[in-house]
Write a structure and sequence with these properties.
By secondary structure, this protein is of the alpha/beta class. The protein is built from 16 helices and 12 strands. The structure holds glutamic acid. InterPro entries: Aminoacid_DH-like_N_sf, Glu/Leu/Phe/Val/Trp_DH, Glu/Leu/Phe/Val/Trp_DH_C, Glu/Leu/Phe/Val/Trp_DH_dimer, Glu_DH, NAD(P)-bd_dom_sf, NAD_bind_Glu_DH.
Length: about 475
């Protein structure tokens, strides 16, 4: 979404970058080296469909190769263009640095409306796009590793992985050429939910520190907080589901393509998702009130606003009317640079995209490691862990028998304690640790330096320092 008189998405990212860099003391020239996109490749290819040749335009932008492989999703949307993939690639660089995923930043996109094609047609198009990228090493386990993004998912990643394997029949690490694959094609448990799960973990960490809660003029915990989510795609759906089911938050608004749903009581996220699958939109959903002008719901009263759809949805035209004291950017770039300034002046706290949605690439990192190590996480230690826990349980059981009515183990304790961690538990634990640690590094800056007045600047500072350090280590 672009609004008149506002910079483009890439310019908006650059403006935010510049704000942070102004507070740093980088060697001359390094700032520009980090900011600019190294290369953007445009590929145009034809696919024979329905009796004629259709020409498609795709991009893969490489923002920074201070670490390789470079990493970032592939988006399928009619809105894809060079400016957008470059902005998204830049965000990938900062995101990976912030959460210590050892990658440079990249992003790809194909200008297509996937809903207009049959599955077998999408497969042909995806395989051809993958071929064009792979033959230029823009898909490669040690150079460039794509992942899902808007409009793509496990299915497309499986096609890409298979296409790469066909072109590189002796590469033992071929599966690591792309992440976000289905479990049966080399994927990892917990990747689909990862970005939404990361949003949940980010909010949990925010509510662990009173200073942060105070900054937003809030109190208490996630329990009972009224949440509006924009976009019930993979990220928005999982974030809203986990927050309502596990943290007691109330989903009071859901904004979708065809309008929005609002309700005093928490909306059943799964029921809405099922409704969308069946009816193509939220209109007519029985459990809430339908609002035709969906975007207006961004301005409704709530505690937490989660934009989880497109970039630029909070912009100069609506920023001053946003009431939420806390915004968490589950999408990439949902707040323009101009809107960011207005919101900062109002005292709105924004948990920035490069941190808030980093759960996806974090679990992609785990998947890539799994593919390179050729073994599922937890396979070696799970039963050993269970056997050791059994020893403790046996001892406690002896105590329980001895003490009779005076003491006994809590119900379910045995069963819970006995269970060794499988891959899903390990992935969630690694993700939680990553989200906490990265948040803490931003928090330290936010509260520790008077010149840092917002979390976005703090996030940029932490990540630019890391990127700069790796350039220095390379002798640049
Ligand atoms: N597309 C996601 C993002 O914007 C995931 C990228 C990845 O897993 O490499 O962060």
């Amino acid at each position: 979404m672009s609004v008149k008189n506002e910079p483009s998405f890439r310019e908006s990212v650059d403006l935010m970058f510049n704000r942070a860099v102004a507070l740093m003391d980088l060697p001359p020239g390094l700032e520009e080296k980090i900011r600019v996109c190294n290369a953007t490749y445009t590929v145009r290819f034809g696919v024979r469909l329905r009796g004629s040749i259709h020409t498609f335009t795709g991009y893969r932008s490489v923002h920074s190769e201070h670490m390789e492989p470079v990493k970032g999703g592939i988006r399928y949307s009619m809105g894809v263009n060079q400016d957008e993939v470059e902005a998204l690639a830049a965000l990938m660089t900062y995101k990976c640095a912030l959460v210590e995923a050892p990658f440079g930043g990249s992003k790809g996109g194909l200008r297509i409306d996937p809903r207009e094609y049959e599955e077998h047609e999408l497969e042909l198009i995806t395989r051809r796009f993958a071929y064009e990228l792979a033959k230029r090493d823009l898909i490669h386990p040690s150079q460039n590793v794509p992942a899902p993004d808007m409009g793509t998912g496990e299915r497309e990643m499986a096609w890409i992985a298979d296409q790469y394997s066909r072109m590189n029949t002796t590469d033992i690490n071929a599966k690591a050429c792309v992440t976000g694959k289905p479990l049966n094609a080399g994927g990892i448990s917990g990747r689909v939910e990862a970005t939404g799960r990361g949003v949940q973990y980010a909010l949990q960490e925010f509510f662990r520190d009173k200073r942060d809660i105070d900054k937003a003029g809030m109190s208490g915990t996630l329990d009972g907080k009224r949440v509006i989510v924009q976009g019930l795609g993979n990220v928005g759906y999982h974030a809203a589901k986990f927050l309502s089911e596990e943290d007691g938050s109330q989903i009071v608004g859901i904004i979708e393509r065809d309008g929005a749903l609002v309700s005093e009581k928490s909306i059943d996220v799964d029921a809405v998702r099922d409704w969308i699958v069946k009816h193509g939109g939220v209109k007519g959903f029985p459990g809430a009130t339908y609002v035709e002008n969906g975007v207006s719901v961004l301005e409704e009263d709530c505690d937490i606003l989660i934009p989880a759809a497109l970039e630029g949805v909070i912009n100069l035209s609506n920023a001053d009317r946003i009431k939420a004291p806390l915004i968490i950017e589950a999408a990439n770039g949902p707040v323009t640079a101009g809107a960011d300034e207005i919101l900062r002046d109002k005292g709105t706290v924004i948990i920035p995209d490069m941190y808030a949605n980093a759960g996806g690439v974090t679990v992609s990192y785990f998947e890539w490691v799994k593919n390179l190590s050729h073994i599922r996480f937890g396979r070696m230690q799970r039963r050993q862990e269970e056997a050791r826990h059994q020893l403790v349980i046996d001892e406690l059981q002896r105590l329980d028998d001895y003490l009779g009515d005076a003491w006994s183990m809590s119900p379910n304790f045995k069963q819970k304690y006995l269970q060794g961690a499988g891959e899903l538990e390990l992935v969630r634990s690694g993700l939680d640790d990553t989200m906490r640690t990265a948040y803490q590094s931003m928090r330290e800056r936010w509260h520790g330096d008077d010149k840092v007045t917002d979390l976005r600047t703090a996030a940029y500072l932490v990540s630019i320092e890391k990127v700069a350090a790796s350039y220095r280590a390379k002798g640049l």
